[in-house]
Amino acid sequence: MPWSNQSGGGGGGGPWKPGNNPGPWGQGPSGSGGGGQTPPDLEDLLRRGQDRLRQALPGGGFGGAGIAAIVALVALGWFATGVYTVQPNEAGIETTFGKFTERTSSGLNYNWPSPIGSVTKLRVTDRNSTDIGFITREDPRRPNNTTQIDVNEESLMLTGDENIADVKFRVIWQIDPARPEDYAFNVRAPRETVKAVSESVMREIVGRTQIQRILTAERKLIEPAAQDLTQKVLNEYKAGVLILQVQLLSVDPPEQVISAFRDVTAAQQDLERMRNEAEAYANRVVPEARGSAARILQEAEGYREQTVAEARGQASRFDQVYEQYRNAPEVTRERMYIETMERVLAGSSKVIVDQNGQGVVPYLPLDPLQGAPGQQPQGSQLQVNQPRTTPAVQQQTQQGVRR
To answer: Please, are residues 168 and 132 in contact by the beta-carbon 8 Å criterion?
Structure first.
C-alpha cells in the first residue's frame, strides 16, 4: 500500500510521516507521534448547520409550518422575478410556454416568470442601416477613421441593355412599432433578410433600366421605387420591418470602361444644356416673330382701309366733277386746267413776260427771300404764257362753281 508504514531505515516511512510531510490539512495522521491537529469533522459541521436552521424556523423544527414557510418564501421570490421594466424606446414581447401573448409598452410590467413565461425587449425606435455593395470597417492604424471595402459580388448588377453597373446603396430601417412581434418570431435573421431583399429588389430595378438612364436622368427615381418594392416584399414576409429610406450612394460603370462612360455622360449633359438653350431661344424669338407678324397684319389692314377710303373719296370727287362737267363743259375744262397748272407751277420760280413786247416784267421773289420751303433756286427760270381770260369766261366759271 502506498500509505502503509514500512519498517527499516529509521522508524516508518510514508508520505505523511510525522515530522517530515504534513497531511492534507497541514498535519500528520491522527494517533501518530507528530503532535499535529486533527482534520475537521464533516458530520460535526452538518450537525451545527441543522441546529442553526432549527433555531431560525418557527417551532424550532422541520414541522409542517416550517416547510410551508420555506415554500412560500421560495414561491414569493419566484413570482417576484416576473416583474420587468420596458424603456421608452423599447417594446416588450411577452410569451407563455413559448407562445406570444401580449405586446407591452414602456413602463413597469409583469409576466409569468421563467420557465413558464419570458419577455423579449426590442428597440423599436432605433434606426438601423444595412450597406449593400461595400463594407465599412474601422482602420486600426488610424483611430476614428473608417475604411470602405468593396464587395463586387453584391455591387455588380446587369442592366436592361446588357451592361454592367457598379451600384452601392444603403438601406435605413427600423422595427415596425405596430408589429414588433412579427420581427421577433416570423423571421429568423431579420438583418440578413433585409439585406437579401434589398439587393434582390435593386437588381430587379436595375435589370429593367438602361445604363444611361441609371447614370443620368432616372437616378433619383430608383430610390423611392426600391424603397416601395422592398417594403412590399417585407410586408408579404410579415417581417415586422419598416423601411425608412434607400440611399443610392454611387452608380458607376466597371473600372475598365468608366472613363468612356464619363465621356458619354458629359456629352449627354452638353446635349441637355444645348437643348435647354435652344428652347429658351425659341421661347424668346417665337413671341417676337408673332408680335411682328401681328403688327404687319395690322399695318396692312390699316393701309387697306386707308387706300380704299382714299379711292372711294377720289371716285366720289370724280363723280362730282363729272356732274359739274356735264352742266358746264367749257367752264369745267378751264377750271381743271387752271387748277392743274396751279399745282404744277406752285413750287417753280416764275418769270413774267409781257405779251405786248415790252420784255420781262420786273418781279420780286418774296417767297425765296422769306425762306419759304419748297422753292427752287433763283437761277431756274420758266417762261409762262398765261392765256387771257375774258370777262365772259370768268362769269361762266363763277356760275359753274355756284352750281
So the answer is: yes
Q: Which is it for strands 164-175 and 156-158: parallel, antiparallel or unpaired?
A: antiparallel
Strands (E), 336-377: 351-354, 359-360
| Residue 388: predicted pLDDT | 45
CA atoms within 13 A on the CB side of 316: 6
Instruction: Please give the biggest Cα pair distance in the chain.
Output: 206
Which residue from 118, 92, 87, 86 is spatially nearest to 104, judged by alpha carbons?
A: 92
User: Which grid coordinates belong to 144?
Assistant: 476614428
The label of the residue with cell 510531510 reads 21
- Helix 258-327, helix 329-344: angle, nearest 10: 140
- Consecutive H or E run containing 136: strand 134-138
pLDDT in tens, 207-228: 998 887 887 777 788 999 999 9
Cβ atoms of residues 167 and 157 within 8 Å: yes
What are the structural domains of the chain? Answer: 55-123 (no CATH), 128-253 (3.30.479.30)
pTM over 0.70: no
Q: Which three cell numbers stand for residue 184?
A: 421577433
Q: Measured between alpha carbons, how far is 315 from 317 in angstroms, rounded to an integer?
A: 5
Q: What is the DSSP letter of 118?
A: E
Task: Give Cα 385 distance to the centre of its chain.
Answer: 97
Residues 268/210, Cβ–Cβ less than 8 Å: no
CB 180 within 8 A of CB 104: no
Residues 373-381: what's their mean pLDDT?
47
The candidate with the shortest Cα–Cα distance to 87, out of 128, 123, 127, 126, is: 123
Half-sphere exposure of 182 (CA within 13 A, CB side): 15
User: Is the pLDDT reported for residue 360 higher than 80?
Assistant: no
- Structural contact between residues 89 and 121, judged by C-beta atoms closer than 8 angstroms: no
Asked if residue 51 lies in contact with residue 36, where contact means CB atoms within 8 angstroms, the answer is no
| pLDDT higher than threshold 70 for residue 157 | yes
What are residue 137's DSSP bridge partners?
A: 147
Q: Is 133 within 8 Å of 168 (Cβ atoms)?
A: yes
Residue 371: the pLDDT is 61
